[in-house]
Predict the 3D structure of the following.
Amino acid sequence: MTQTTLSLIPDFDLSARNTMALQARSRFGLVLDAPEEVPATFVLAAERGLPLRILGGGSNVVLSAEFDGITAIIAFKGRRIIEETADHVLVEAAAGEVWNDFVAYTVEAGFGGIENLALIPGTVGAAPVQNIGAYGAEIADVFESLTGYDSVTGEITTFSREMCGFAYRDSVFKQQAGRYVVLSLRLKLPKPWQPNLGFAGLSELAGRDDLTPAMVMAQVIALRQSKLPDWRVTPNAGSFFQNPIVNPASVEPILAEFPKAPNYTQPDGRLKLSAGWLIEQSGLKGFAMGPAGISERHALVLINRGGASADDISALAGHIKATVKARFGVELHQEPVLL
Ligand SMILES: Cc1cc2nc3c(=O)[nH]c(=O)nc-3n(C[C@H](O)[C@H](O)[C@H](O)COP(=O)(O)OP(=O)(O)OC[C@H]3O[C@@H](n4cnc5c(N)ncnc54)[C@H](O)[C@@H]3O)c2cc1C
């Protein structure tokens, strides 16, 4: 049996490890370079009597200023094409791979299936946690299986799609936060490739007979760069609220006042509204409360204007929720996790 040595880093600075650039420290940090270190980390935390939290790229979290425990960064990498048949390609990546590098890897190998999810920040391991999605695609569409460490049973389990409980920006890993650590992810990319061009901005590519996954990826990247502020320049955590899914009756007053309000019928008959549209119509685009603000470019993106803390961001988020609720009667739900 291999011996795992874990080196705790005291007073671990996380300010450069979260895309909101919040000033954040952890009593101890660990950078995990191998999946075998995950079980050992839980043992170590239990021995020390310290709480443990898992972090990937820090792009979907609002980090508290101080964490009196261990923050473990998932950093183990690796990716491969497992098999290619006439009707599919199986690809796999370790949890610490950068998600966008994995997308580029599959596209450069000539395989389509996740090109609409290009440029989403963060790691492969976190991608199934909130079932990442963009431009009419989500990871559940091409999911094959994943391996995860269950900190309750101490076992490593292979999760099928059914076991993951995927829903809109949701999964069992999010529902039972802290229990599972995703170790690796396997995707099944269908052949022949069917481009997913239903989303505004991509439909102009439809009908081209020379279309490749690389061309769609390039268009997705261009669209994202034109719409979203770059987190390296303007620190943010992407969409701060989920698009609310509501009963049609509750939307009637909104549609009576704004017949063109964006709304999308869901398979269960409910309607998905645009959280960004609701915030913008509430007059909040560009609004700021001290160091926390709402992007001028995109009403759904909360930004750190300089020196913001988790409390500043949460105060602004609370104000937005209350304003939208008062104006439209719609409840917004925060997407980034408070850690
Ligand atoms: C500019 C910007 C644009 C974005 N655009 C999109 C978008 O289009 N679509 C979308 O869906 N999301 C988007 N996001 C959100 C974010 O990129 C994704 O949620 C991403 O998957 C988070 O990955 P991460 O590694 O940074 O996770 P982190 O922020 O580090 O962690 C998020 C949560 O997952 C948990 N976690 C992390 N790794 C693991 C693991 N291996 N096993 C179990 N739990 C784990 C953490 O404990 C935490 O609860 C965007 C974010 C930004 C900053």
The pocket of flavin-adenine dinucleotide is lined by residues 19, 53-61, 74, 95, 120-123, 125-127, 129-130, 132-134, 173, 177, 180-182, 228, 231, 236-238, 337 (CB under 6 Å). The chain has a mean pLDDT of 96. The chain is about 25% helix and 25% strand.
